[in-house]
Amino acid sequence: MTTPLTRSAARPRRRRSGTYGDHPATGYLFLSPWILGALLMFLGPMLASLYLSFTDYDLFSTPNWIGLENYERMLTDDPRFGNSVLATVRFVVFGVPIQLAAALGVALLLNRASRMSGVYRSAFYAPSLLGGSVALALVWRSLFTADGPADQLSGLFGMPSRGWVNDPQLALAVLVLLIVWQFGAPMVIFLAGLKQIPQELYDAAAVDGANAWHRFRSITVPMLSPVIFFNLVLNTINAFQVFNAAFVVSGGTGGPSDTTLFYTLYLWRKGFVEFNMGYASAMAWVLLLGIALVTGLIFRSARSWVHYAGEKR
Amino acid sequence: MTPARIRTLAWHALVLAILLVMLYPLAWMLASSLKPSREIVTSITLIPRTWEWSNYAAALEPRVGVPVWRFFLNTTLISVGAVLGNVLTCSLAAYAFARLRFRLRTPMFAFMLATIMLPYHVVLIPQYTIFQQLGMVDTFWPLVLPKFLATDAFFVFLMVQFVRQLPQDLDEAARIDGCGPFRIFTLVILPLLRPALITTAIFTFIWTWNDFFQQLIYLSSPDHYTLPLALRLFVDTQESVANFGPMFALSVLSMLPVLLFFAAFQRYLVDGMATSGLKG
Predict the structure, then answer these.
(1) What pTM value is reported for the model?
(2) What phi and psi values does residue A55 have, to the nearest 5 degrees?
(3) Span between the terminal Cα atoms of chain B, in Å
(4) A125 vs B275: CB contact, 8 Å cut-off?
(5) pLDDT tens digits along B126-153
(6) Contacts with A49 from chain B: Cβ below 8 Å
(7) Which run of H or E residues covers position A55?
(8) What DSSP string describes A143-178?
(9) What is the ipTM of this complex?
(10) Are the Cβ atoms of A288 and B118 closer than 8 angstroms?
(11) pLDDT in tens, B225-241
């Protein structure tokens, strides 16, 4: 059975595997670009950004220590910050589960021997590939603009609208639809997971008279749960950081009425439009904490619904 | 017709129906690139009433005083640089993590995994400051240099998983033949690592090609603009309907390399994507 990312780290190392005892420095030599990168691009900047988050810093003058003021302001004196959290959380809460459901649904549909399977699989994957691009976001924006195709379609159903992207009720839905539409990447991972489920399980269940729904509930979902878990974690983390789509669809503003002011969009505005780098750094750390918290909750919940092969249920 | 045959046909019909809905936005973009600007937004149909090939000519006219081929060239330079960096340094790091033994391996590997999950924004501003101090803002260096420092931990991890699967006996045999770690790496591991290297190269290329955030932050003079930045110019001017045709034409052109890559390598891509989540 498969094990996702989180497990592999804990895998016991083979004893004395690949020893080059006579070259003790070789490991560090091979790793030297990475070590340099880890220090200069990650560890150093992380410490610096933590420091900056307690300062007032405009990029040009020396950072000025102000203690917790940035964090206080976020919580008490910045309604737009609250709006950005709300927009992001709504995006993640609606977008990710629907996206994963679509991915699983289509994966189940495609999990069938056919000469066309490969072609279909690639075709469903194509939107994911272009997903982050500005070009596609422009297309998306035009599809949902006033009198555009989406308006004409909703008109057919008797729901007149004057541009989904201009409507505070619908603007976020446009972006949710975009992420749902890009279900290709998790779908491919689901497909690979489905292939690993032994057919005998289904045969045995069929003999016992289980119908399709029972088989899905009692075999597919538990056997696939490590893969569902992996996709859930990965896509949640990514969804928290979506920027391009929100930037292009709202023209960089996060409008209408801040309903698409995603967290990273607001962070960018604070840092690179208003040059409030201290505040933006503080926002980055709050984002890290938020993601860690949500990921932690998913990991905790995993104990009750993720089953690994060879474990007692 | 047998029931099995009917079921197969129904399956194809269902899959194709879903695909039709899925691919409509892409088809609409392509169709729109050939329609007169005024017709585009309000028309839901895919066949242009009049074919407006001049959109493509208009898309290739200079933008903010810079010829459009320049945007293509800039994007290509950055993407190719990123590919070289990732393939070179991520494979070195992966080999060290997967095969070599040294004291700090375990904590370093743990840190590498942690950086996969780290939001880029946490390091964004100090990284920007570093590049600013180095006088590299508004050059391609901030977009390329980090790739030569194996900062894309996702690919390091992908390759570590791959190397771990290769039989140790090969290394042993090469070692008995007198190869040191460098020759084992170049003569044994690298050739076998090819599928993972190709996956890394293609994903790096496509992701860099499509990237916007970093280019937005680091590149400011129009000479250095990339395609996404050039396309972004349409965001501000989009309200003027006259620009729609050229906008879609340039969108199509900017997606072409990605689609061609995809068509050529889709097997590697899709398998690589599946592998990344599953091998353990």
Answers:
(1) 0.90
(2) -130, 170
(3) 45
(4) no
(5) 999 999 999 999 999 999 999 999 999 9
(6) 122-126
(7) strand A55-56
(8) HTSTTSHHHHHHHHTT---S-GGG-TTTHHHHHHHH
(9) 0.90
(10) yes
(11) 999 999 988 876 555 55
